[in-house]
Amino acid sequence: xxxxxxHTPADLKSAAAPDLGAYRWRLLAQGDSWFxxxxxxxxxxxxxxxxxxxxxxTVAVNCAGQSDALAHMVDLEAAPDFVQLLTDAxxxxxxxILLSVGGNDxxxxxxxxxxxxxxxxxxxxxxxxxxxTEWGPPSQGVARxxxxxxxxxxxxxxxxxxxxxxxxxxQGPSAGRPVFMHCYAVPxxxxxxxxxxxxxxxxxxxxxxxxxxxxxxVSRLMVSHLAQLLKSMAADKENFPGLHVFDSTTVxxxxxxxxxxxxxxDWHNEIHLxxxxxxxxxxxxxxxxxAVLLKQK
Length: 297
Hints:
By secondary structure, this protein is an alpha/beta fold. The chain has one domain: Rossmann fold. Helix content is 32%, strand content 11%. It has helices spanning 9-12, 39-43, 80-87, 103-111, 148-169, 201-207, 215-235, 275-293; strands at residues 2-3, 5-7, 25-31, 53-54, 58-62, 96-100, 179-182, 243-246. The strands form two sheets. It has a six-stranded parallel beta sheet with strand order 2-5-3-6-7-8, with helices on both faces. The protein has a two-stranded antiparallel ribbon with strand order 1-4. The longest helix is centred in the middle third of the chain and has 22 residues, at 148-169. It starts with a strand and ends with a helix.
């Protein structure tokens, strides 16, 4: 088993450009901060791609960029290299596409406040959490804090954008090739930010006055909703052909300590994995990806 060789679009344009033809499988990657090339994340061994391993020589061109902040993966106007490499008819087909989709968007949706800066109410269908006066009965458990109308808005947004990505795939030489996505792990809301941003969930749950005893369960509820959404999309072969989703919520991870302000358990900060966390999820995801690739002609 060998680690996935990772390059950037800039590497392909350099004088010492890698020979992609030397690899059995050639993958194109785009995604959010779990794929980030930011130096701070690489130093923390927190890039999921770098921990993927395969039985045959495999390379990925990672278009995720240098940002360590939350980013909309589906903002394709900010990802011209990915679109060009995906649709370029002069290039050989990619063996598969790796996508890290929805996690940052989920966090940003959760961060939507109940009121605008000028004090106006934000409609329930535009946020994932409910104000205290909107909470359901205690019998609902932590679902009482959750905005199902807001989730419906988010889910439609994600489905629409993934469909668009699959359409782009089918416009180029990689038409019909497998697209691999992962679910996310359940973060422990805590005061642990990144090098230039965060924490993310911790101040949000405090602002919504959600009891701290329920924070982890609220985090799990949101991540589980996202996992079910992604898996339902993969099961819908008519609308999402060639989509394969790995349920990383099933991989056992060490939770961070509730009040830890830095690296703890399998976590680098509140929402990003450290080396051990990436190692655990990537090893399992590698097997899932390879099983699909081996079935291709």
